[in-house]
Automatic annotation (TrEMBL):
<dbReference type="GO" id="GO:0005886">
    <property type="term" value="C:plasma membrane"/>
</dbReference>
<dbReference type="GO" id="GO:0012505">
    <property type="term" value="C:endomembrane system"/>
</dbReference>
<dbReference type="GO" id="GO:0005388">
    <property type="term" value="F:P-type calcium transporter activity"/>
</dbReference>
<keyword id="KW-0472">Membrane</keyword>
<dbReference type="InterPro" id="IPR008250">
    <property type="entry name" value="ATPase_P-typ_transduc_dom_A_sf"/>
</dbReference>
<protein>
    <recommendedName>
        <fullName>P-type ATPase A domain-containing protein</fullName>
    </recommendedName>
</protein>
<dbReference type="Pfam" id="PF00122">
    <property type="entry name" value="E1-E2_ATPase"/>
</dbReference>
<dbReference type="InterPro" id="IPR023298">
    <property type="entry name" value="ATPase_P-typ_TM_dom_sf"/>
</dbReference>
<feature type="transmembrane region" description="Helical">
    <location>
        <begin position="34"/>
        <end position="53"/>
    </location>
</feature>
<keyword id="KW-0732">Signal</keyword>
<feature type="domain" description="P-type ATPase A">
    <location>
        <begin position="75"/>
        <end position="134"/>
    </location>
</feature>
<keyword id="KW-0460">Magnesium</keyword>
<keyword id="KW-1133">Transmembrane helix</keyword>
<dbReference type="InterPro" id="IPR059000">
    <property type="entry name" value="ATPase_P-type_domA"/>
</dbReference>
<keyword id="KW-0812">Transmembrane</keyword>
<feature type="signal peptide">
    <location>
        <begin position="1"/>
        <end position="24"/>
    </location>
</feature>
Length: 138
């Protein structure tokens, strides 16, 4: 309810109801409240729709964050076992399993793989994907 216009409309609605009830004739008094009440109903509808829309946006935002958090996991080889960990928990010297389309969260030496290319445009500005070779082939 931080919107100035909505507050103004609510005040105007109550003023309309009060003024209409005071200055209405006996015949008009039974319907004098309708205009002000219509303004209040309109404000209620607008705030309800806005609240529902904000709720849905927040729900989608939380789903997107959960998806991104899941994308920040990576499989590493620790003590002979494949373990899924968060990017932030990678330690120096670990062997990381790289999959097509994933973000590589660290500097690395390619141990095994063929036809590996990386898009380093976010870091270097280079728009062409760079071919990567294993250490033995370099």
């Amino acid at each position: 309810m931080n919107d100035f216009m909505l507050k103004l409309l609510i005040v105007a609605a109550f003023i309309s109801i009060i003024v209409s009830m005071i200055f209405a004739t006996e015949d008009e008094r039974s319907l004098a409240w309708v205009e002000g009440s219509a303004i209040l109903v309109a404000v209620l509808v607008v705030t309800s729709v806005t609240a529902w829309n904000d709720y849905k946006k927040e729900e989608q935002f939380l789903k997107l964050n959960a998806y991104n958090d899941a994308q920040n996991n990576i499989i590493v080889l620790r003590q002979g076992n494949h373990v899924e960990i968060n990017f932030n928990d990678i330690q120096v010297g670990e062997i990381v399993q790289i999959k097509p389309g994933m973000n590589i969260p660290c500097d690395a030496i390619l141990v095994q793989g063929t036809g590996v290319t990386t898009d380093e445009s976010a870091m270097t500005g280079e728009s062409i994907e760079l071919k990567k070779e294993t250490l033995e082939q370099c």
